[in-house]
Structure formats: structure tokens, C-alpha cells
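In this section we walk through a basic example: taking a raw amino acid sequence and producing a predicted 3D structure, encoded as C-alpha cells. The instruction is simple. Fold the sequence below.
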Amino acid sequence: MSIKKSIEDSIETKKQFLQDTQNLRLIEEVASKCIATFNNDGKVLLCGNGGSASDAQHIAAELSGRFNYDRDPLFAEALHVNSSYITAVANDYSYDVTFSRMVKAAGKRGDVLIGISTSGNSKNIVKALEEGRKQGMVTVALTGSKKGIVDGIVDYCIKVPSSNTARIQETHILIGHVICEEIENTLFPQD
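The resulting C-alpha cell sequence is shown next.
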């Protein structure tokens, strides 16, 4: 595949995503839920594997650090950043429960949990989202176009219209940035 074709495919995926008004509504609703959570001294937890873990950590950093301008930090954390915890739980229990155990420990009613999985079937993401529901958290999944297990277990499922992992992940970070921008503009408006 040529470089130009890869870029064209990425642009086309985003165009298709933009044309689906359901996606835009879901992003708006998720941003609103995050804003309400932060207004109530809650937090946003995120989880993913591989590139999706990088996206989870990236989004958490935009919220807890800053996005477009200086402002107060928000409580957002990617659940994989404690390598000792992850490796201990994976060894002592199972990799499948690495995130759900932390959700059980840290997640509270009204907090937001965002699970990122291009397939929507990653066992540890599914278990984390199930635990989030038990805890009374707002559950969100970012996935690809194929039907996945998470589709039926979350409050909000934002699906990228692609089955290509790279195109899905490129759009996931765009979605994350849009959500961060909405949160920042609302909670910390600039003159």
C-alpha cells in the first residue's frame, strides 16, 4: 500500500465517521457525562491494550495535564500505568482481570470508564466495563465497525467505520481529542 493511499484511507474513515450523526451525538453525550463527573469531584478512568493503551494514556494526560491551554488538572488515569500492579495481577490471577480489579478498587458511582478496543472483544476490557457497570460508573467503549462483546454492555459505544486497526486507532485518538476539547472549553472557558 502506498503512503498516499494510507493517508487517503485515514481521511476517508474520518469522513465516514463525521457523516454519521449518531457518532457526533455520542461524542457530545460522553463529553457531557465527563463534565458532570468532573463537576461532582469524580474521575475518568481509561483502559486499552497495546496501541489502545497508548491512546488511553494519551487521553488521560490531556485531561490531567492540559490540552489547549493552562488550567486546573482533572482526575483522569489510564489503568495500565502501574507496571508492578499489572504484572502482579496478571501473574497471580489472570491478565483478563488486570483492569477490572483496579476498576473495583478505584471506580465509584458516577465516575466514567472508557474502554478502548479496536475489536470490542478484549477480555480484560470487557471485564473492566462489566465491573464499571456494577460500580455504577458511566461506561464508554471506543471500537471498530465489527460487532463486539462490548457493544451490548456499555452505556455508550462509539464505533469507527473501519475494520483496519490503524484507521480505527487514528480515529480513536481524534475522538479522544474532541472529547478533551469539549471538556476543557466547558469547564475552563477562555475569554
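Looking at the output, two observations stand out. The beta strands are 44-48, 76-78, 112-116, 138-143, 156-159. The first helix runs from residue 3 to 19. In the next section we compare this with other chains.
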